[in-house]
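User: I'm designing a mutation panel for Acyl-CoA dehydrogenase family protein and want to avoid disrupting the core. Could you give me a predicted structure to guide residue selection? Please restate the sequence first so the numbering is unambiguous.

Assistant: Good idea. Sequence first, for numbering, then the predicted structure tokens:
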Amino acid sequence: MTFSLALNDDQIQLRDWVHEFAEKVIRPAAPEWDEREETPWPILQEAAKIGLYGYETMVTLRSDETGQSFPILAEELFWGDGGIGLAILGTGLAAAGIAAAGTLEQVIEWVPQCYGDENNVKVGAFCSSEPEAGSDVANMRTTAKYDEASDEWVISGQKAWVTNGGIADVLVVQAVVDADLGSRGQAAFIMKADTPGIAAPQKLRKHGLRASNTADIFFDDVRVPGTALLGGKDKLDEKLARAREGQKAGGQAAMATFERTRPTVGAMAIGVARAAYEYALEYAKGRVVFGRPIIENQAISFMLADIATEIDAARLLVRRAAWMGATGERFAAAEGSMSKLKAGRVAVWSTERAIQILGGVGYTREYPVERMHRDAKIFDIFEGTEQIQQLVIARSISGVRLV
């Protein structure tokens, strides 16, 4: 399929539909839920009622052969608010993990359970990072040992910074099944969060994205059936055998999930950046200093011009990466990492500039750009830090195994 920047009718309708929800439902509620630092269940339920939150919508958007629908959705939701946007989209990471590693039967059984329905909304969580294994996935310590007598897996360890941790109904858990193989000896498992031995005693209090629940999850000899292994044991055994023989063992499950979601994360960042830019632009038009609107000062208007240019540049990289992922194009120069790197930097820089344009009031919680700036910082950190993205890109363009 030829890459095009023009949105088709369905994509335009999607953009306008989500934008209206973000404008009328999310934005008015954003300050309250940021202060409460709680999951906005009523908003999730409203999203479920109109079909915005649910597995059917996610499947439809993921089937867009151009790859553009999900970034459109993400940008508009995060334009509304970063924390509430992540509360709505966070379950998608778990669903993507199931789709990346699971069998068709597992996808059909478990993905709907991640979302629930409009009368009983649920959320799912993808559990990969650990205190000593964030960017360094190969340093993972959570283990899964197979008990052949009972056909069960016994999982022990700790997962850190889990989006929807402590409130999720379904967990997708990455664990080590063969420590000698490093990241190639890992597999993904799916389970109900109320399985005996699972605990999430305390949510984390965060700098930004406060309406999205984050917590560490502990696994103490958690027993799950053999069917909990995503992809099945035969497939895992074949993968491990190839790895032990030094052959290519196929995709590493956590990395496969991140590759499916990284352009979407870039779109989230763009949504936050765009929201701050638009607010600063309108403020500059109306704020009068020395007898004229401050936008008439080159220092302000040029700053806004730079912000607009950077946001457009980041969006183009995200749209290209999303198209490449959907059409199977090879990421020869780590274009996916480029999109996430650029978008994260633009979000942090744009929101900081927006505060500067507003001046002293921009630093207060009476104006939304302060919250947007706090929300933006995470895009330099999660799903691969800024430095990890640079490393991936540098390796791709140089062919050198940098460390």
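For picking mutation sites, this is relevant: Residues 253-286 form the longest helix (34 residues). The chain has three domains: 9-121, 124-244, 253-398.
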